[in-house]
Design a protein that fits this description.
Number of helices: 11
Helix content: 55-70%
Shape: rod-shaped
Order of helices and strands: HHHHHHHEHHEEHEEHEE
Radius of gyration: 63 Å
Largest sheet: 5 strands, mixed
Structural class: alpha+beta
Number of strands: 7
Distance between the termini: 89 Å
Strand order of the largest sheet: 2-4-5-7-6
Strand content: 5-15%
């Protein structure tokens, strides 16, 4: 039974947790930024406002003291030079007050105290300093000193007291600013600690949530999958946790069920295959027995069938020699037909036996030098070439893996075919060449014979298919079928090249030996030309390895008049006439 998929998904839970933590951290960051800005303002107030005000208040007091001292000194000495400190102190007082007023925007109480100091200083100058200076100038030092009384000193003490109150207010403002700096710094530290705690708590919650919602369900699912992987395909898979994991468990269980069903089908199919294999083995044994019977029949046919044929041919020839001219013309013709039919039947039987034994009775593959093979072919076709005034040449040929007797038979059939299907009054020229194409050697047999039409290019390799009558070109019609079977037995293919300008070009491929990279440099090889017997079917041909001496003559097999090669050309290789 499938579990119900409900509740918050893992994505939603993680996003919610991250959102809450993000909002908290953003709020804390905003508060910390505001607190940091406030802290900077408070530090600025301590360093750039209350600090300078404290110094300036002392400078203001010094300026007032300089004025009071200068007035008393002038009253004693009457020397105008003693008034210089008074005037300098007055200028300094004005400058300091102006500088302090620029810093008092945030401190109205200090501004009030400063105004009190200015008022009392102005009253002192008006009631004490100015009268003393004027009196001393007009009436002398004694009159000036008479004005410097205890009341005048008490009035200046009030100015000094006002400056003290100003300084106390500045100090109080500075202490308040310093306290604010300490408090804001402490609050900023607290906010940072809270942010760190939020991160730690969020990380712990996320870790615990992942363990409960991800790691444990995945571990349980992995354990169940291992049980299935070990071979228990009937074990149902159930998963707890977020909806995604439940759906994953359902998909894995569906895959398990599919695998179990497929395995059941495979077991059933294996049983059927085993049964079919047993039947095939029985059929193979039956075929082996049948092949043995056929081979035995072939041997019997090669001897027992040919014996009556030899007798028929021999006695018909005896009749032909003994009674030639004694019977009428029609009887002589009948006897000639009987002799020819018996001989043709012998050749057909030999060729069929040779065709059937290709690849069945084998001597095994070995490295074969095709140059040596061509030397043997030249010797076999010498009589036919001399008879037709034919010329046989070949370039340097490769060494390949194969059976030398079969390859000799292959090339002898091609050369004999080229000599047989020649043009009247044109001496035949046959050239064999090779080139490396990929991992294969492409070997070509090119002649200047009668050629072949493209529509018959495939037909010539079919057994007993003839394009000409036996009177025009003698033979059994099996030669190129043997060529095709030998090539395919060696793992190659054969075709007719219909693009040559004249004559016929038959090309076939043979696998190259491992490590072959480049074709061997071409070289012409001379081979002697040999006359051919009047009847092409009696030309010698090398025999198949299975049954030497039982194959028909080379020109009997290749009675394909119209053969032209297909596929690779050898025009890029130097061909020298021998």
């Amino acid at each position: 039974m499938k579990p119900e998929v409900g509740g918050w998904s893992l994505r939603r839970r993680v996003i919610t947790l991250l959102t809450v933590v993000g909002v908290l951290l953003i709020g804390l960051a905003t508060a910390e930024a505001a607190m940091a800005a406030r802290n900077r303002t408070q530090i600025d107030a301590v360093l750039n406002q209350t600090g300078p005000l404290r110094v300036q208040s002392q400078e203001l007091l010094n300026a007032l003291l300089d004025q009071e001292t200068a007035v008393r000194g002038y009253a004693v000495s009457g020397d105008p030079a003693d008034l210089s400190p008074y005037r300098a102190g007055l200028d300094q007082e004005r400058s300091v007050v102006a500088a302090m007023q620029t810093l008092l925007d945030d401190y109205p109480q200090i501004g009030q105290e400063l105004r009190i100091v200015e008022e009392r200083a102005g009253q002192w100058r008006q009631s004490v300093a100015e009268p003393v200076i004027v009196t001393t100038e007009q009436s002398g030092t004694r009159a000036g000193q008479a004005l410097v009384t205890d009341q005048a000193r008490q009035q200046f003490d009030q100015v000094r007291s006002a400056v003290g109150d100003l300084q106390e207010e500045i100090q109080a403002a500075r202490e308040r600013a310093a306290t604010d700096v300490r408090n804001s710094s402490n609050l900023l530290v607290v906010l940072l600690i809270v942010a760190a705690l939020v991160v730690v708590v969020a990380g712990a919650v996320l870790l615990l949530s992942l363990d409960r919602m991800v790691i444990r369900p995945l571990t349980g699912l992995a354990d169940q999958v291992r049980e299935v992987a070990e071979g228990d395909y009937q074990h149902g898979i159930a998963t707890a946790g977020p909806p995604e994991f439940i759906r994953l468990g359902e998909d894995v269980d569906a895959m398990r069920q599919k695998i179990a069903a497929d395995l059941a089908e495979v077991r059933a199919a294996r049983e059927r295959i085993e049964w079919v294999n047993s039947q095939l083995q029985k059929q193979a044994e039956e075929l082996t027995r049948s092949n043995r019977d056929l081979e035995q029949f072939a041997y019997v046919a090669s001897h027992d069938l040919q014996e009556p044929l030899r007798k028929v041919a021999s006695f018909c020839q005896l009749l032909q020699r003994r009674y030639a001219g004694q019977l009428d013309e029609r009887a002589d013709q009948y006897i000639a037909f009987a002799v020819d039919g018996a001989q043709r039947m012998q050749r057909l039987i030999n060729d069929l036996l040779a065709f059937s034994r290709i690849g069945r009775l084998t001597t095994g593959f070995a490295e074969v030098d095709l140059n040596k093979v061509m030397g043997d072919v030249a010797g076999q076709t010498e009589a036919a070439r001399q008879y037709a005034d034919a010329e046989l040449t070949w370039t340097e040929l490769p060494v390949i893996s194969g059976e030398e007797p079969l390859l000799t038979n292959l090339l002898a059939n091609l050369v004999s075919n080229s000599i047989k299907f020649r043009r009247p009054d044109v001496p035949p020229k046959v050239h064999i060449s090779a080139r490396l194409v990929g991992a294969e050697w492409e070997i070509s047999c090119q002649d200047n014979g009668i050629g072949i039409e493209p529509e018959f290019a495939d037909k010539i390799f079919v057994i007993f298919q003839r394009l000409h009558s036996k009177d025009a070109y003698p033979g059994t019609g099996i030669g190129l079928a043997i060529v095709k079977k030998i090539v395919e037995y060696h793992g190659g293919r054969v075709w007719v090249d219909t693009d040559v300008p004249e004559g016929t070009a038959i090309r076939f491929t043979l696998p190259a030996l491992p490590g072959t990279v480049e074709p061997v440099p071409t070289a012409a090889v001379d081979s002697p030309e040999q006359p051919q017997a009047a009847e092409g079917d009696t030309m010698p041909s090398n025999e198949a390895p299975a049954a030497p001496g039982e194959q028909s003559a080379g020109s009997d097999r290749p009675d394909r008049a119209d053969e032209s090669p297909e596929s690779g050309r050898t025009g890029d290789m130097r061909e020298t006439v021998g």
